[in-house]
Amino acid sequence: MSERGSGRATREAIREAAARLFLERGYTRTPVRDIAAAAGVNAALVIRYFGSKEELFLETMRLNIDDEPLLDVPMESFGRRFVEVVLSTGDIRGVYLALVRGSGERRIAERLREVHETALVAPLRARLSGVDADLRARMAAAAVGGLLYSLWVVGDEDLAADREELVARYGSIVQRLVTPQA
Description:
182 residues, mainly alpha, Arc Repressor Mutant, subunit A, elongated, transcription cis-regulatory region binding, Tet_transcr_reg_TetR-rel_C_sf
């Protein structure tokens, strides 16, 4: 294998190769040797730059929903828009699946919780007010998390058959959860 130019370029090549392979194969089915081969470097460099495969996975599998302006809609239509954004943001599916599949590892399970907090709970909580805003955000995030599990882990094709209907109905569920009780 050839060694790449600068240390920064080598590190980035490894990072890019790892991110692509982790998204395609998951954590357990991605050996360090394959990451190195895809990056065009020696496998020892992967460990030298990142310490371990787990560290590299944790560095590459991050996700946040940019809630401005994607979620900058009137609160009355927030539930539907949130479901729409989660289902249509390209890297959410890959990162979610990679984290779920690797969640048997303690630190990866912690990253899954972090992604849940930053990508689902935080954008919801940022838009809510009231004494139970955090609880409402967590309940809605749990509902969306269940949707993602059903679609992407279980592969419920019947649920996904009519995307517009799914977004409308699930958006309605999320909307009820984020709306304060009267």
